[in-house]
Amino acid sequence: MAQLIDGRKISQEMKDELKNKVEELKKAGREATLAVIQVGSDPASGVYVNNKKKACAYIGIRSASYELPEQTTEEELLALIGKLNRDKSVTGILVQLPLPMQIDEDKVIQAISPKKDVDGFHPENVGKLVTGGRGFVSCTPAGIIQLLKRSGIEIAGKKCVVVGRSNIVGKPMALLMLRENATVTVAHSKTRNLKEICRQADILIVAIGKPQFITAEYIKEGAVVIDVGIHRRNSADGGQSAKLCGDVCFSEAEPRASAITPVPGGVGPMTIAMLMNNCVEAMLTDA
């Protein structure tokens, strides 16, 4: 029976630690405000934004909400970001993605001050990750490192395969595993012999964006399996209800793995926990 890596439990432990840290920082005169910008009324984005606000309230960080209409122009959004960059009371800025088609996401990411980039997407912070410097790290990959460490899973010297090469998960994940002294292979949609490569992994991290793509034949006996994907699939009752699943077929992977993350309740909760961690780190930075 594989060890179930409980992201809900670990994320709650982290938020409790951060809550205590925020209380101490407030006594020392440090305050924090996270500015959360949402353009449009996408329901999924709304859920994510509300969860972030709740996490802020729990650990004691102020959140300022900017809910902009769908037709907001790129110039209007960049002007708001510029204003927040100059506001010394704002320590973190988060723009909820995706954005409407008329707005260039890259321009928006680059417009946020690197010192307030709590999502860890700004090229300056990405560059610091590459060179081993200190900066904000993308929340999902940073959360996976915490999942592994807090579950007692050794990383150093292990063979790690990351399936996926996105800027938000795959690439920073590979760099963080290198930082932890793993030997890392990055696989993707053009990789040949993907099954054979995945079967070499002591730690298999899957962020491929395809529901239940990774089955038993991709997994080495005793491997640690981290499933980053989350998908909503209609159930067999004609679509009246839906069930969440990941990029990994859990029922096939679990018997082969030594440890595995469930979906939901694995990687997902850690993303917000690490966002809160970045917000606390921002309290220590003079913006």
Q: Are there runs of 5+ residues with pLDDT below 50, and where?
A: none
Order of helices and strands: EHEHEHEHHHEHEHEEEEHEH
How many separate helices?
Answer: 10
Assembly type of the shown chains? single chain
The percent of residues in helical segments reads: 25-40%
Q: Note the overall shape.
A: globular
Mean pLDDT rating: 94
CA radius of gyration is 19 Å
Write the layout of secondary structure elements.
Layout: E1 3-4, H1 7-27, E2 33-39, H2 43-59, E3 62-68, H3 74-86, E4 92-95, H4 105-111, H5 123-131, H6 139-150, E5 159-163, H7 170-179, E6 183-187, H8 194-198, E7 203-206, E8 224-227, E9 231-234, E10 242-245, H9 250-253, E11 259-260, H10 268-283
Parallel strand pairs: 1-11, 2-3, 2-4, 5-6, 5-7, 7-8, 8-11
Antiparallel strand pairs: 9-10
Helix pairs in contact: 1-10, 2-10, 6-7, 6-10
